[in-house]
Specification:
With 92 residues, the chain is of the alpha+beta class. The chain has two helices and five strands. The protein has one domain: Alpha-Beta Plaits (2-Layer Sandwich).
Length: 92
């Protein structure tokens, strides 16, 4: 892993389930060559794991704060994580 590589875990709260948030996140990540996943949590939040170029991750974080058209993002909590072992970007 280079010093330009970054992995994050984001917890996105608000109206983020049932509004294509995961699918749209996958599109945004794949367009930026970011690996990871987006998963609905039982409490209504969405968890996003994302690894890639730090500039691209920064752009994805900015997008997560808005989300797709029908989403209403209340908050995005970000933490740095160690890289997971999977590749590609998936929805769960």
């Amino acid at each position: 892993m280079t010093s330009n590589h970054r992995c994050i875990r984001a917890i996105v709260s608000g109206r983020v389930q049932g509004v294509c948030y995961r699918y749209s996140t996958q599109e945004q990540a794949l367009a930026r060559n970011i690996s990871g996943y987006a998963k609905n949590l039982s409490n209504g939040d969405v968890e996003v794991i994302a690894c890639g170029n730090q500039d691209e991750i920064g752009e994805l974080i900015q997008w997560l704060r808005q989300g797709p058209t029908h989403a209403q993002v209340a908050s995005v909590q970000i933490e740095e994580i160690d890289p997971p072992t999977h590749t590609g970007f998936h929805t769960c």
